[in-house]
Amino acid sequence: MRSKTVPAGATRLSAALVAVLATLALLAASAAVVVGPAPVARADDRSHNDRSQHASQYDHRSPNDGRQRPVAHWTAAWATAVHHPFALSEWFGPNWSEEGFADQTVRQVVRVTTGGSQVRVRLSNRFGTAPLRVTGVTVARAADGAAVRPGTLRPVTFDGRTSTTIPAGSDLASDPVRLPTRALQRLAVTTYFAQPTGATTFHEGGLTTTYRAAGDHRFATAAGPFGGEATHSYYLLTGVDVTRGPGRQVGTVVAFGDSITDGALSAANVDNRYPDELAERLVAAGLRLGVANLGINGNKVLGDSTCFGERGVARFGRDALGQPGVRTVIVLEGINDIGSGGLPDTGCGTAPKVTAEQLIAGHHAMIAAAHARGVRILGATLTPVKGNEYGYDTPEKEQIRDEVNHWIRTSGEYDGVVDFDRAVADPADPDAFLPAYDGGDHLHPNDAGMRAMAEAIDLADL
């Protein structure tokens, strides 16, 4: 959410046309989603030992009887939504997406929301313009800062090879790695790029420190080599999946939305976003479900942005329905379509005004796509904006928010409703945040507000 804009050239479409086009696009995208390794243009560094280990560890055939073993079911234990590289440091601070990496190692820390006996990592060159060479990757249990726990470092392979090349526009999943994990454990994924990458696909609002070091430090256990540079974004890394073994299936809950889902104004490095708090509730309740956060700062249902990702109806099939093991999606999106409409360009494009009808048509499209895949989908009401100084708080925009929220609550189109609006609103002034939950800009919740949102979710609906 922190954006107020979409690209120039967007037009105002009728609600019916928006619904038809968005639904067709989503159904096509969701039908085309395939979770697993994408085609690799070139890979090498496959030794005889690599081949032997690959055959014994990952081949599903028994050497004795030739029969197929049960297929492992993967669950998204951590995920993030990626977008175009951009720099807007006056708003968000520096990041490395435009400069990329050359003879550098990047260590990224994630917290998995459910555990398993094996892990795999997913990388993306979705918004790259050329093939991207990955020299090598490791995964380990994280320690303090950039350090990892000794004895837990594992090399990651791709089709049995330690190096790989990801074609432009493609995603790639690794081979399984034998590293037992438990829910809420932190892992470190370390990637070395020997050759210049150029601008890289990334996720700006990571709220978690990512470290960079010169040279190849994939197997460093101490934090020392990573003491120089850090940002709070994720680069190329889109997911960490887990499996409990063949035949043992665990589902994933996807939180889909904008900066409120992404955690803007939540504290960094403490995992207090509402999806993080939801994951903790599930663990406390003994429910083995993964939670994947697919929010993007500034994202909209109907508008693309050069900074803040493809429109929600375009990315829903891939980012939400494409997550391994997805069973339920929570949709919290639309406040940026309303609030940024008609505001001037601040570097990421301009946004047309939208109507409640147009937004509802976009939500209809996401509902249809989820149901076509047999996925449960919950609608979340849009949270308050009264007092916001970004231009979101006007009588006209508040009326649209009220109309959309009324439809979410009463239409019965969603499989269930999560009333985030009422969870964080001030009972004495329902159009405003409760002061104890306000992140300070009257638009984003603070950590206490994030907890209140997570507590508003009925776990039985998941």
Automatic annotation (TrEMBL):
- Biased amino acid composition, Basic and acidic residues: 42-68
Under the heading CDD domains, the entry gives: XynE_like (cd01830)
Keywords, A to Z, come to: Signal
> Where is the stretch described as Disordered?
42-70
The answer to whether UniProt assigns keyword Signal to this entry is yes
- A Pfam family (short name) is Lipase_GDSL_2
Q: List the InterPro entries hit by this protein, alphabetically.
A: GDSL_Rv0518-like (IPR053140), SGNH_hydro (IPR013830), SGNH_hydro_sf (IPR036514)
What Gene3D superfamilies does its record include? SGNH hydrolase (3.40.50.1110)
Signal sequence segment: 1-31
UniProt key word Lipoprotein:
no
Outline the extent of the SGNH hydrolase-type esterase domain: 255-452
Record PANTHER family: GDSL-LIKE LIPASE/ACYLHYDROLASE, PUTATIVE (AFU_ORTHOLOGUE AFUA_2G00820)-RELATED, GDSL-LIKE LIPASE_ACYLHYDROLASE, PUTATIVE (AFU_ORTHOLOGUE AFUA_2G00820)-RELATED
Q: What is this protein called?
A: Lysophospholipase L1-like esterase
Organism expressing this protein natively: Actinopolymorpha rutila
- What lineage is this protein's organism placed in? Bacteria, Bacillati, Actinomycetota, Actinomycetes, Propionibacteriales
